[in-house]
């Protein structure tokens, strides 16, 4: 990464102190990490314990594809207000508060379907949970890039955000496992839902946005009323889309016996082909070209206009970098369950072991991202991510003893925390400050397209090559990204031809 890709500095941290912004993003990371783990790793463990076929468990990982396409609705968060909330707290916080209401309502729905007797209903609430979690992240990422526009400022803010995020994932994973071991999965989801709601009153108690047009109580009442309508609409649309998707899968003959891996790889190639065909035309566009001025597609066309054919190398790199981490998250918990580890042992691994390991990785990654060249720290992160995958192959071969599980999780979470922090800083430096939320949504979403497509096929891959072969393969993919680092660090941004 070079200085050409750094976002021009404005007022550091929006006039707030660094410590206040870090505390704010610790809170926002916490509110995003809780639900992510509940529709991802915790759900795969829950399904595995209910005896659901491992291929079907893998298909549920496709729910995590929803954040990949967050660029489709990210521009709406840039342009539109949330009725009620925005009048007092401003647009960014308004969307954050609405998203939190959606997160809690979806988790209550997942608690109501915790016996997994109807997998379509389980999927419905998992998808709405993924949608609202992603919406919260879009709003938070856009605000973060506005508040901390340079690489030096991004490092500590990203670290604080990921501390909160990973603390919440640990709280969700270990907390849900401990509660389920003593009660049931419904109680686990309700308990985490209650915890997920804690940031809402903190946001509601914050001071008004400068120039606020409404009073606090009026804005809160209007926001809650509008929020209820939004939640019903999103749930209804999700149900219709889910019915259509299941009908299409049945028509295509896709079931637990289908090898979907080749299809996943083919689908992932389509965006690269389309972008390669469109790039020459995009590079010739002037500042008045309709595509560049469009509020809908303009932010995304700008990425390709600025970086040209270097965009293909950048997107190839980001699509590979986190594959190993995503695949490990998908099948690590089913592996632990299949190997005979108890819910209490899994809870300890997800909590007392994962939290300090992850925090150490995040802290070191944040420090190095602020002080070292990003190319070097990205390479270190890839090696650590690969090691975290490979150790799960050893865990499968070894006798099921607690210390082995804890050592494996410690290495995996340290590497995941380090690589994740450096990666977020790298993506943030690619963003044009004119379109922070939309462009970061596109880049971070595209970064997980290949990973999450393959995650949905992880169950069928496991059936073919076993757990050990699966984690050896995912570790090897993490190392492949290193080959592209000498290329992406030389990518230069084109000078803007329109006023910032």
From TrEMBL:
Membrane-crossing residue ranges in chain numbering: 23-48, 54-73, 94-113, 119-139, 160-180, 186-206, 218-251, 263-282, 303-323, 343-365, 377-397, 403-428, 440-458, 470-489
CC per GO annotation: membrane
InterPro entries: AmpG_permease/AT-1 (IPR004752), MFS_trans_sf (IPR036259)
UniProt entry keywords in alphabetical sequence: Membrane, Transmembrane, Transmembrane helix, Transport
Keyword check for Transmembrane: yes
Membrane-topology descriptor: Multi-pass membrane protein
Compartments where found: Membrane
Designated name of the protein: Muropeptide transporter
